[in-house]
Design goal:
The structure holds two protein chains of two kinds.
Chain A: H1 2-21, H2 23-42, H3 48-52, H4 54-75, H5 82-87, H6 93-123, H7 131-155, H8 162-189, H9 198-225
Helix pairs in contact in A: 1-6, 2-4, 2-6, 4-6, 4-7, 4-8, 6-7, 6-9, 7-8, 7-9, 8-9
Chain B: E1 2-13, E2 16-27, E3 31-36, H1 42-49, E4 57-62, E5 65-66, H2 70-73, E6 76-79, H3 91-101, H4 107-117, H5 133-145, E7 151-155, H6 163-178, E8 182-186, H7 190-196, E9 199-204, E10 207-213, H8 216-220, H9 224-230
Parallel strand pairs in B: 3-8, 3-9, 6-7, 7-8
Antiparallel strand pairs in B: 1-2, 1-4, 4-5, 9-10
Helix pairs in contact in B: 3-4, 5-6
The chains are: A mainly alpha, B alpha/beta.
Chain lengths: 226, 233
C-alpha cells in the first residue's frame, strides 16, 4: 500500500511539474507534428505505398518524439540536486521508477492521441476502423518504449551528452517493440483485423513489456546508485 | 546505541582511491565534524553515508541495520550542495511531496508546521522559482528536517546561507542534538563546526588522519587540528 502511495506521489509530481513547465510536451509535440508534415511532403498521400508503410511512419514519429519526453524524465531531477533527495528518501527504487514510467506513459499517450488524427488527415487514412485493436497496440507499444526509455534516462542522466546518448542506446533495444507495433499498426490502419499470424506480434509485444518491466524494476537500484 | 558504523570503507573512482579504509563509529547523540581540505573525501564519504553512492569495499550500518535497508533511510536527513526542492512546485507542494514520500501520518499538517517554523507560511502557494535565495535555503532546511530525522548528514551546511538561514539551522541542529539526534557535518567553517561538534573526524587525501573527541585546544585554536594531524597525515 505504501509502495503504491509513493509511486502515485511520484506520478502526480512529475505530471504537475511537466504541465506547469510544458518543456518536454511542447518540444515533443512540435517535433512530432513537424516530422508528420515533412513525411507528408516526401510521400504521395494517395498512393498505396504510403498506406503500406503507414504503421512504420507512425511509430517512427512516436519513437522520435517520445525520446524527447523520456530524456527529461530524470534530467529534470538534476535541478537543485532533487535526484539525490529522491534516492536518499525511503522510496524504493522500483516505486520511483514505476512512478516516473507511468507519468511518461501518460504524457506519451497524450502526444500520440494528438498525433494520430493529424496523421489521418495528412495521409488520408481512416484510422478508426479497428479502433479497439489500434488502442491496444498503442497501449502495449508505448509501454514498451516507455519502460526502456525511462530506465535508460536514469542511466544516462549524469552523462554530458545524454540528449545524444539516450536515442543511441534505446533505439536498438526498442527494435522488437517497434517492429511488432509497426507490423500490427499497418493492417489496422487499412481496416484489417488482427488474426492468424499477426497475433504472434501481439504476444511478442506483451512478452517485451513483461520482460523489460521486470528487468527495469530489478535493476533500477543499481542504475540509480551505481 | 550506535547511530552509524562505517566499516573499512574504500571508494575508487577508476584507479583513484577517493577513500581508503575509513572506519569509525558514531554513537547516537553525538555531533561529528567531518573535516579536511578540498578533495580529502568528505563529500564522497557523506554521499556513501546518505546512500547516494556505494562503497567499492566495506560497508555502512545505520542504526544497526544494513545500509541497503530502506527503512533506515527514513531516519536520515540530508542537506547537500543543492537545495533539493522543485522550482516548478510551490513551497507547500514541495514539503507535502516529501512528507508523502517519507510516509508521514499527516503530510498536510507536517508541511504547514514546517512552513510556519521557517516563516514561509505567507508564501506557501508561491512557486519556488519566484523565491529569493534565502527563502529557498530555508525551504531546503525545512525539507531536510520535515520527517524529524535521527541522523543528519550535512555537507557544507553553512556555506552560502544567509544570516537568517544560519540562525535557523543552528537552532534546529541544537534542538536535534538535545533530543538525542546525531549530526555529521562536513565543513570548512571551523569555528561554527567546533562550537557544535562533540567529535571530530579529519580526512587527509582519502585517509582518516584523526578521529576522536573535540578537545578544548581545537575550540581555542581552529588551526590546531590541521597542524597536528592534517599536514603530516
Amino acid at each position: 500500500m505504501r509502495f503504491l502511495r509513493q509511486m502515485f506521489t511520484i506520478v502526480a509530481k512529475d505530471l504537475r511539474s511537466e504541465l506547469r513547465t510544458k518543456e518536454a510536451v511542447n518540444a515533443s509535440l512540435s517535433f512530432a507534428l513537424v516530422i508528420l508534415l515533412l513525411f507528408s511532403f516526401a510521400f504521395d498521400p494517395t498512393s498505396d505505398m504510403t498506406r503500406e508503410i503507414s504503421g512504420g511512419l507512425l511509430w517512427l514519429v512516436f519513437a522520435f518524439a517520445g525520446v524527447l519526453v523520456l530524456n527529461r524524465s530524470f534530467a529534470r531531477e538534476l535541478n537543485n540536486d532533487c535526484l539525490d533527495a529522491l534516492i536518499s528518501s525511503p522510496v524504493p527504487g522500483p516505486a520511483l521508477f514505476l512512478g516516473k514510467a507511468i507519468a511518461n506513459y501518460i504524457l506519451l499517450l497524450g502526444i500520440e492521441c494528438v498525433c494520430l488524427p493529424i496523421f489521418g488527415i495528412f495521409y488520408n487514412i481512416h484510422w478508426t476502423g479497428q479502433l479497439a485493436w489500434l488502442a491496444l497496440v498503442m497501449l502495449l507499444g508505448t509501454w514498451g518504449m516507455t519502460v526502456v526509455g525511462t530506465v535508460f534516462s536514469a542511466l544516462t542522466v549524469n552523462m554530458r551528452l545524454r540528449e545524444l546518448m539516450l536515442p543511441m542506446l534505446v533505439y536498438p533495444i526498442m527494435i522488437p517493440c517497434l517492429m511488432a507495433s509497426m507490423q500490427l499498426t499497418t493492417p489496422l490502419l487499412a481496416d484489417q483485423p488482427i488474426t492468424g499470424d499477426l497475433l504472434a506480434w501481439v504476444r511478442m509485444l506483451i512478452g517485451f513489456d513483461i520482460i523489460f518491466t521486470a528487468l527495469a524494476v530489478t535493476l533500477i537500484d543499481t542504475v540509480l546508485v551505481g | 546505541m550506535k547511530a552509524l558504523a562505517v566499516e573499512s570503507v574504500w571508494k575508487y573512482y577508476g584507479d583513484y582511491p577517493a577513500l581508503r579504509d575509513i572506519a569509525f563509529d558514531v554513537e547516537a547523540g553525538q555531533c561529528v565534524a567531518l573535516l579536511g581540505r578540498n578533495g580529502a573525501g568528505k563529500t564522497t564519504l557523506l554521499r556513501i553515508l546518505g546512500g547516494l553512492s556505494r562503497p567499492t569495499r566495506g560497508g555502512v550500518r545505520l542504526f544497526e541495520k544494513e545500509h541497503s535497508d530502506r527503512s533506515s533511510r527514513a531516519l536520515t536527513g540530508i542537506i547537500g550542495h543543492g537545495i533539493a526542492v522543485y522550482d516548478e512546485l510551490s513551497a507547500y507542494e514541495n514539503l507535502k511531496l516529501f512528507a508523502e514520500l517519507y510516509a508521514l501520518d499527516n503530510p498536510h499538517q507536517a508541511a504547514m508546521e514546517w512552513l510556519e517554523r521557517t516563516a514561509l507560511d505567507r508564501v506557501k502557494d508561491s512557486l519556488v522559482r519566484e523565491f529569493s535565495r534565502g527563502m529557498r535555503q530555508r525551504l531546503a532546511v525545512a525539507r531536510a528536517f520535515l520527517h524529524q530525522p535521527k541522523l543528519l548528514l550535512l555537507d557544507e551546511p553553512f556555506t552560502s546561507l544567509d544570516d537568517r538561514a544560519i540562525a535557523l539551522l543552528q537552532g534546529l541542529l541544537r534542538d536535534s542534538l538535545q533530543a538525542g539526534g546525531t549530526v555529521i557535518m562536513s565543513t570548512h567553517q571551523l569555528r561554527e563546526a567546533m562550537e557544535l561538534a562533540s567529535h571530530v573526524v579529519l580526512l587527509n587525501r582519502g585517509r582518516m588522519a584523526h578521529c576522536g573527541e573535540r578537545t578544548p585546544e581545537m575550540l581555542a585554536d581552529t588551526g590546531w587540528l590541521y597542524r597536528n594531524y592534517g599536514e603530516a597525515g
